[in-house]
Structures are given as structure tokens and as C-alpha cells.
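Notebook entry, structure prediction.
Reason for the run: the old model in the group folder had no record of what sequence produced it. Starting over properly, with the input documented here first.
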Amino acid sequence: MLKMGIVGMANVGKSSTFNLISKQSVPAENFPFCTIDPNHAIVKVPDARFDYLVNIFKPKSVKPSVLSITDIAGLVRGASEGFGLGNEFLGHIQGVDGLYQVVRAFTNDKILHTEGEMDPIRDLDIISQELVAKDLQFVSKRLQELSRKIPRYEASKNSSQEAQDNIVLHQALQKTEKLLENKKWAKVGSFTNQEQIQLDRIQLLTNKPSVYLVNLSQGDFNKHKQGQDFQFKKEIEKWIGQQQLIYYSVEGGTDQTVLDKIINAGYDLLGLQRFFTVGTDEVRSWIIKKNIKAPQAAAVIHTDFEKNFISAEVLSFEKFKALGDKAKDVYERRFSKEGKDYVVKDGDIVHFNLKKMK
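New structure, fully documented this time:
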């Protein structure tokens, strides 16, 4: 299961955000390090299409798509050097696939900030710099190790898969080191497909995609909804640029629409999509990566399904819904038969035909 991690400076509303999203009670006291061990939640990914199918089939079992979300201890300046709970914080980040970065843009004298006054741009800079610094430490050390290995590969004409992978990784890390030295994240670099594969394997912190969640006061959130400016708005949007940004307010409780948007943003960030299996026994939403072919999608249900795949019977959700009240009775006659090269699309209703398994 793919995971999103909620990160941010201490006392920015991070754990309260986690509480809103997951409805799970976790510590959220006014203390910088109240979240020492990461808190985990499995949350339903909102999907009106799935709800529609459940309403039509009224199945005995309902299994929606879910996303794993981890609340990670608050970061402070110097985390890359082990200050505060820096080592634990950075270790927990390494275990997730994408990041929700919570940014504080509200003032409250009762909620202390470890840096003194509230300044979202400073906080964004600190988080970015700490992750860059930690990655630079790791990359420099790894480059030293590889620099000793590669001459030995060349001298012995070693063409093993390990040697080839390490040569590609060495090339990728040389590019990455230059990026990090210039305070840039690894994910903005230009890499070959093979280099990117090797980088993904070592889980660099700055190679992870991010959604930025800006926590506003209730008053500023109301201004945002009305299209009005508020303090730091222009500066925040300039800093974040083309990356995904969601405004919300812990103080105001945040309505379900915004919470759904946050969950779906994490889901989309990880490059995921859904297909459905339906019937009166069960309606289920299955998670796959985008651009997956039918046999690999079948393997999500059971690993043996891929090697025993014959064909897939497919109907898009849109075509199913267009059938109206009669959909439940006639949808199977509207399936199209697809082969092993069919790329499963988001929202497909699929039935797999398989060889008889021993």
C-alpha cells in the first residue's frame, strides 16, 4: 500500500490536520515533539463513482480504495544534524511515498512557534533546506562508495546487473549532488529512465512529490473562499509555484469537501487510479498505477491472475451510468472484450477471464 506522510514544522496544526483527515485521535497538544512515534491511518479515498455502484448493486461486501497516511513528528531547524527529533523525523519521511507539507499561515499567541513569530515562507525554506541537507549527506557518502567500486567493475570487466545498476546510480547521483548543492530538490532534475529507476530505489527525501497544505485562520479561509487576498498569500503562491496547493483551516474545522480534496490530492500525487469489480456479493475498488495493462491489473487481485490471464471484459463507468435504472440487469451484455495489451483506464468496470488455475 502506498503511503503519504504529513510533515511540517512543530506546532503548525499538523497533528490536528491528521485528526481531521483520519478521524483518529492522536496527540495534538501544544508541545513541539508531542508526535514522537508516527501515527498511521488508513482512510477511504472519496469516489462518487464507487458510491454510485454500491447504491446500484447493494452488495453484501463493500471495499473502497484506501490511502495510508502517516503523521510524522514536527521538524525543527537543524533536523538534518539530529537536532530535536531530527533523526526520527527524517527516518519516518523516508518510509513514505509522497508528502503533505503543512504550512502555518495563522497567528495564535496560545500556540507557540519554535521559531518565534509565524512566517510561512521561512518555514517552507527551513523544511526544504533540512531535506536537501540530509539528502546531500547521503548522496555524498554514497558517491564515495560507488567511486571505489566502479574502477573495480571496469578493471574486471564486470557486466553483472549489480555493476550496471551501480554505474547508472553513480551517474544519477553526480547530477543529484549538483542539484542539492544549489539548494534544489532531486525531483526537479533531468534524468534518463534508468537513472530515475535507480534514484527511486534509494528513496531520497527530495525525490518525493509534495502537496502543500496551507493552514489558515478561519477569517483568512473565509477570505480565500470569497476570492480575497490575505497575509502571505502572494508570497506562498510564488514560493510553491506550479506545485499543488490547498488552503484549509483547522480552526474552522474544514468542511468535508476540502478534506476529500486533500485525500484525493495525495492519491493523485502518487500516480494512482482505480478500476472496479462489481456484483451483488461485492463491489470493490482496486488501486493500480496509471498506464497499467490488463494482466498486471489482474495481478492486483491475485498474483496468479497475471500468468493465467486470457482476456478482460471492460465497461467504463460512464457507459454503465448511461444505462440508467436497467444497468444492473444489462451491463454484462455491454462489456467489450480486451486482450493483454489493453491499458486499464480510471473508472473501468472489469471482469477477468482466466485459465483454470491448478
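Summary: The CA atoms of residues 177 and 224 lie 39 Å apart.
The old model has been moved to the deprecated folder.
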